[in-house]
């Protein structure tokens, strides 16, 4: 069992293949990072965070002044632009991720799961050959490339589902539907304006409806963590469809949008053939 | 820039990256906002924060409408507006329920830290000796026992 696990990990580490999807994902994350720079700039226009109540994790001396923060924002814009263009995209991804984390460490009020997730994915993407294609002014570099970082991004997805689903499973308010009921209530007007029938919203707010919805969410997250890696292609295809539907449903029922964009982007990386399938095909091919 | 790692480098990097994430997830419960633990939608809770001022004679005067006008150090009154100093997602409004997106414990901590920040960022207020907070939490729809604390200046 352990030998098999080690063999699989080694195969994922040494796997090579077509990096096209990584370039697409890089482009998508570049656009999200540009949007992040825009949001931060808009926030600065309505007042520098350091001039109001803020909660730094770092010592106050490491929190930038307004002038220095403007430079940080400029670096954020430049890094995001480079990621989109593909030029110096990989170091730019690392810089962008570091600036996101730095911003959250300067002010805990700025912490959001989608930012943390964006920083994690951007870091992993920086170690992938995501700059071989879709680079402005440069022809694509042909041939297979190492895909270990792509597999690490996929592992990150499963890790997130496990952590999220696991924490909900051990929380009686979550498991029992109390939290879900409150959440549906708090977003009811927004969701109704998006076209969800009131009768359905009412049903979701009943104890039974909220309990079923909560257990469904926990079960879906835990199942996605495992089934996205399932050996059978049909199971994986169905799982990807369920996962996409799950995130679109979250987007419909809550104000969460950017996290959904991130997840839909990384789901693209699950659509290629499995590492083992590629290895099998390579072994079967004539020399 | 050395981003193309050797096979050994890949193993070390993944061990460090995912090892750090395991530590962050395992210790998320130690942070009131459960940050970096991937605990999405932890609660559907609110808190209502009421703030009063303790004056030099010991009397306690509630802050109403989020505004208070203490006597300044030179005798002239100075208007302070809570919402200009404290903004959402911290409890930016007083006396009304505000969302606690990362849970009651976190929003109470934010309220406590916000009061401490206001206490140290209103130097022109020579009247207020302390801020007295009364927090009414509602966790996932269930009202909980109020929490009281005081921040001296």
Description:
The complex is a heterodimer of chains A (287) and B (153). Chain A is an all-alpha fold and 287 residues long. Chain A has 14 helices and 2 strands; from the N terminus they run αβααααβααααααααα. Chain A has helices at 2-14, 20-45, 66-85, 89-106, 113-126, 148-169, 172-176, 178-186, 188-193, 198-204, 207-227, 233-253, 258-267, 275-284; strands at residues 16-17, 145-146. Chain A has a two-stranded antiparallel ribbon. Chain B has 3 helices and 8 strands, in the order αββββαβαβββ. The relative contact order of chain B is 0.18. Chain B starts with 6 loop residues before the first helix and ends with a strand. Chain B has 153 residues and is α+β, with helices and mostly antiparallel strands. Chain B has helices at residues 7-26, 82-85, 104-120, and strands at residues 45-54, 60-62, 67-68, 80-81, 97-100, 130-139, 142-143, 147-152. Helices cover 27% and strands 25% of the residues of chain B. The mean pLDDT of chain B is 96. The longest helix of chain B has 20 residues, at 7-26. Chain A binds chain B through residues 13-14, 47, 52-55, 90-91, 94, 104, 108-109, 111, 113, 116-117, 120, 123-124, 126-127, 129, 146, 148, 152, 155-156, 159-160, 163-164, 167-168, 171, 173, 178-183, 185-186, 254, 259, and chain B through 1, 3-5, 7, 10-11, 13-14, 17-18, 21, 25, 28, 33-45, 84-87, 89-90, 99, 102, 110, 113-114, 117-118, 139-142.
């Amino acid at each position: 069992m352990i030998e098999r696990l080690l063999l699989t990990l080694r195969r994922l580490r040494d796997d090579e293949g077509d990096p096209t999807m990584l370039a697409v994902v890089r482009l998508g994350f570049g656009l999200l990072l540009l949007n992040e720079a825009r949001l931060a700039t808009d926030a600065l226009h309505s007042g520098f965070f350091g001039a109001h109540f803020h909660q730094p994790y770092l010592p106050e001396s490491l929190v930038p002044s307004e002038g220095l923060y403007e430079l940080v924002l400029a670096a954020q814009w430049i890094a995001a632009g480079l990621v989109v263009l593909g030029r110096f995209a990989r170091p730019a991804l690392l810089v962008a991720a570091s600036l996101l984390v730095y911003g959250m460490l300067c002010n805990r009020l700025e912490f959001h799961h989608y930012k943390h997730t964006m920083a994690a994915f951007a870091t992993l993407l920086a170690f992938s050959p995501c700059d071989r294609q879709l680079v402005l002014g440069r022809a694509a570099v042909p041939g297979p490339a190492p895909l270990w970082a792509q597999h690490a991004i996929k592992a990150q997805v499963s890790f997130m589902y496990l952590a999220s689903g696991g924490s909900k499973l051990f929380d009686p308010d979550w498991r029992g539907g109390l939290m879900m009921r409150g959440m549906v209530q708090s977003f009811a007007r927004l969701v109704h304006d998006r076209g969800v029938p009131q009768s359905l919203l009412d049903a979701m707010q009943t104890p039974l409806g909220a309990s079923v919805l909560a257990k469904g969410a926990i079960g879906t997250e835990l199942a996605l963590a495992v089934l996205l890696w399932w050996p059978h292609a049909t199971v994986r295809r169905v799982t990807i469809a369920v996962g996409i539907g799950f995130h679109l449903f979250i987007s419909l029922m809550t104000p969460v949008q950017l996290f959904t964009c991130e997840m839909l982007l990384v789901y693209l990386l699950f659509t290629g053939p499995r590492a083992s399938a590629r290895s099998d095909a390579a072994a079967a091919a004539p020399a | 820039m050395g981003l193309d790692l050797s096979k050994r480098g890949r193993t070390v990097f993944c061990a460090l990256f995912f090892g750090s994430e395991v530590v962050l997830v395992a210790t998320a419960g130690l942070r009131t906002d459960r940050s970096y633990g991937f605990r999405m939608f932890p609660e559907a809770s609110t808190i209502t924060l009421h703030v009063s001022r303790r004056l030099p004679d010991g009397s306690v005067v509630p802050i109403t409408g989020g505004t208070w006008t203490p006597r300044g150090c030179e005798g002239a009154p100075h208007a302070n507006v809570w919402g200009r100093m404290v903004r959402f997602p911290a409890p930016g409004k007083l006396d009304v329920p505000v969302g606690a997106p990362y849970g009651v414990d976190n929003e109470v901590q934010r309220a406590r830290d916000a009061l401490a920040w206001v206490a140290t960022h209103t130097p022109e207020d020579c009247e207020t000796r302390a801020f007295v907070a009364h927090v009414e939490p509602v966790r996932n729809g269930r009202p909980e026992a109020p929490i009281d604390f005081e921040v001296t200046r």
